DNA sequence: TAATTGTTATACTTATGATATAACAACTAT
DNA sequence: ATAGTTGTTATATCATAAGTATAACAATTA
């Protein structure tokens, strides 16, 4: 699992890290039941503080992407709640779609991008 | 144009304001060429500081949604750059789609939500 | 026993969001 | 001409969040 942090980004490090773990799980680079690097190991690898990685792991656990097994560390364990996931997706998407409509993007163009991303990410 | 700010939200006030202006423009509650309330008037209306509204207006101007006419104040003027808008949409969408894939959302389900939002917002 | 796991606690620095005045040039209305 | 309003800029202050730095804990592993 490769990690690339942009320290000049306006996005928080733990958010960048979380997003890349999203991608890794989606693309099966990280598979269900697989262990993630320890917070200390990953922090050392990407050159940030342990707590920054721990924050990413904690939010991922809280949002149902990881579980902590005392003997195996942080393990990929995706909790599926379709209705909740659909509701969250819609809430996250609303301002983005509104922005796109303002900029003249058609429904078909946006759905084309969704197609592209599904191809790239699964 | 109605504005609703949630002061307990984790989203910054100027971001909430910006998102609602996105929606207002998309739904033609705010039409091309139409003037927005002055920063002071809107700040007073929703009970926040002038600079908070100014920050929302500034980012909207910088992102090509408003222009400033000295005699008419902030005016809706959407700058259309299809390629740039598509690229930004894709960049914003990537982590969301990755998250959705992890949670088992199908391509069709996500595109269904896009359809719903286009119906609601245009 | 020694080392590693996630986690928690405390403390510090830095960056950002929000507020508070104040002022400026450009424009509008009286 | 005067007074008021426009977006904008400049400072300053406060609160919160992000990130760093040590340290410690119970549970597990080698």
Structure write-up:
Two copies of one chain form a homodimer. Chain A is mainly alpha-helical. Chain A has two domains: 64 residues, Winged helix-like DNA-binding domain superfamily/Winged helix DNA-binding domain (Arc Repressor Mutant, subunit A, Orthogonal Bundle), CATH 1.10.10; 40 residues, no CATH class. Chain A is 58% helix and 7% strand. Chain A is built from five helices and two strands. Chain A has a two-stranded antiparallel ribbon. In chain A, a hairpin with a 3-residue loop joins strand 1 and strand 2. In chain A, helix 1 crosses helix 3 and helix 2 packs across helix 3. Chain A starts with 12 loop residues before the first helix and ends with a helix. At the A-B interface, helix 1, helix 4 and helix 5 of A face helix 1, helix 4 and helix 5 of B. Chain A binds a DNA duplex (30 and 30 nucleotides) through helix 3.
Summed up:
2 copies of one chain form a homodimer. The first copy, chain A, is mostly helical.
Regarding quaternary structure, how should these chains be classified?
A: homodimer
User: Uncertain runs of chain A with pLDDT below 50, 5 residues or more?
Assistant: none
C-alpha geometry of chain A: globular
- For the largest beta sheet of chain A, what order do the strands appear in spatially? 1-2
Structural class of chain A: mainly alpha
Domain count of chain A, please report it: 2
- How many distinct helices of chain A? 5
Radius of gyration of chain A: 16 Å
The first-to-last residue Cα distance of chain A is: 16 Å
The helix content of chain A, as a percent range, equals 55-70%
CATH class of the largest domain in chain A: Mainly Alpha
Q: Greatest interface and its residue counts? A: A-B, 41 and 41 residues
CATH architecture tag of the largest domain in chain A: Orthogonal Bundle
The CATH topology of the largest domain in chain A turns out to be Arc Repressor Mutant, subunit A
Give the ordered list of helices and strands of chain A: HHHEEHH
